[in-house]
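Researcher: For the record, we're logging two predictions in this thread. I'll number them. Prediction 1 follows.
Model: Prediction 1, sequence and structure:
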Amino acid sequence: HKMSDAPKELYMFRGSQFVIKAIAAMALKGMLPGDGSYVAREVPLALKGRKKLLPPPHTVPVLRWGNDIIPGSDNICLLLDEKFPDKPRLYPADEAGKAEVRAMEDRISTMYWSNGYLTFCDGQEAFERYTARRVHEAISGIPLIGGLAWSLAPKLILKKAAQAIESGWRDTCRAKGGPFARYGDVPTANRQVVWDETQAELKALDAVVAASPTGYLCRTPTPSAADLTLYGMLERWVGDSLMDGPEGFGPAQPLILDDTPALRKLFEDLRGRFAKDCSLHRFGTIPPQKQPVPPPTYAPWSSSAAAAAAAFSL
């Protein structure tokens, strides 16, 4: 895999934690949204639509680099290290360092489930903080009736949207099975259980970052793929998922880092690097992908996104 001028397309949907990770990784290599180095193509949010367009496991992101199809944010990071060996590395060059980053990356990827729960199953306020503006944009864009419907019953629309998305998320958890299936059945009234578990993991990660001489999870000189995995999760909770403005996202859990100062500092560092230059608004209008994407040609690792098995995500 040598550097080439081959066309590059990122298949994505807005709000995905793993898409945020991939976009940040490309930025570290000098590839920015809107600078012509690659283009974005929108795929459907619903699994049914993605099954028609993306190869199994039908998750985002997927990158086309010329004739190569690269599924999953971790495979994309690995490819970027091969393409740009002289730019900041996403995985250390030595095998021990690479294994450490990979293990931390996979550990943080499992936070996908608590991330989703505390966004979609934590009550109306968390849902509206995160995506009320996106719902407003979607409803208002319906010809003839959308604007009128929103003007007459915005709270009802948001309530119905929250119920539908929460139900879909819970079904996804149950379908996943294993230790994360239980997130489908923890009632919102018992959300403290998930909050406490998440806080315990965040505090453990906070201790790792606080002990790191570089301020990054695996003591790397620049952000690694593990740091970027965490960044994608935190953008949803305390950032704007790289979409600010009246039609963008908001923070689902703005207080979640209050007891983890090292993580807060790390997030602010990463957000300072990426929030402006990687804003999805820089793509302009993101056209929909209409043709099926061919099967993967470059996937040396099973994808973190596949490990999360995101059948439904925002």
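Researcher: Logged. Prediction 2.
Model: Prediction 2, sequence and structure:
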Amino acid sequence: RTLEEAADAMADTSNDSKLGRYLAVGVAAAGAACAATSLYWNLHFRGTSWLIGSFDLGPSLYGMSSAPSTPAAGKGGKKGKKKKKGGSSGHLNGMDTREPSTASTGPSAGGGPAVYETKRAVNEYLQFHFGDPNDVLPYRDGPHDALRFTQRCADLCAKHTKSVKTSRTEPAGLALDIGCAVGGATFELAKHFAIVEGLDYSRAFITAARLMKERGSLRYTCFREGEVTRKLTGAVNDRIDRARVSFREGDACGLPRSLLGGGGSGSDFDAFGRHDAVLAANLLCRLPDPAAFLAQCARLLRPGGVLVLVSPYSWLEAWTPKDRWLGGYYESASDDGGSAEGSRSASPAPNAPYRRSFDAIEAALTSAEGGFDLVEQNDLPFLIKEHDRKFQWGVSHCTVWRRRRAPNA
């Protein structure tokens, strides 16, 4: 009997040992999964913890202790860890990512790319892109034709794109929105195109765009007067399939190789791109080297594809060094009394000739290397609300270009 009891005790000890090993393996696996998830959120949204904490996103997002288990298309989501005040110090080549100020995006804010990393900029652009027109401009008298700017930009792309015209049932083709900000035009393009990608240099803007894709709506803060604010909700149109849309960070002056080339045939394979339409809305005069961007456009579009450029030509040295402005400067007089091409005058005479931005754009795009023909140009007003009684109203110059079917035609 004693031997039998000893054998039973040994069997129980062996079973407990096996159970302990199974539990240890399970705990280790769970820990590894948590560590991997934490690393993903840290890399994906580093430097934007202030943004994640600044929106009222509802109880199912950020208000709960855990992150969603399946972020949309691997893009949207947030950190599961407690956020650090101030974000990452290495974000965007040393750009300041401390707790952002509440400065507006208007000219009085001082300018420069860092403006677009602030809470105020993200809130203003969420209202600009997704706000109810009655909230943006609640007055009877005002520039109502400047509302729904992102929709009008996307509709222009669709109007001139042949793949959209020939597809009667489902959206077709591939579109790219460069300088997409928080993604309003990117989503609007998804009404017309099967696949749409938005690209922007601002991590804060891309984070907000990804969250908008995941949720479909976001609450934002708008100013009434002084320090008085209120919360409103911006939303993507319910008829838009958000699954068609993706977002990435990127530099318009040095576009990712994956976006360039691959749309031609034979020896021209890399001279053309794969996109049916490319939109760059209010982007050119916020680039450090706009000519470098224009030089890449030919390799973005397939033969017959459409490039839509929209810009108010608001050149400021905070964004673009003066020697890289496409226009808006006086030209030096040549010996024969005309103007010297590309020569800038430091002390212009009365009625001196000046360089127009459109002339530089046209010269670059219609050249043999540029590979485009001008289709249409018009004025496109826009309105950005700063507070209840102050707005940024502008009129951008919109030009539509079609990619030639032969690189040297």
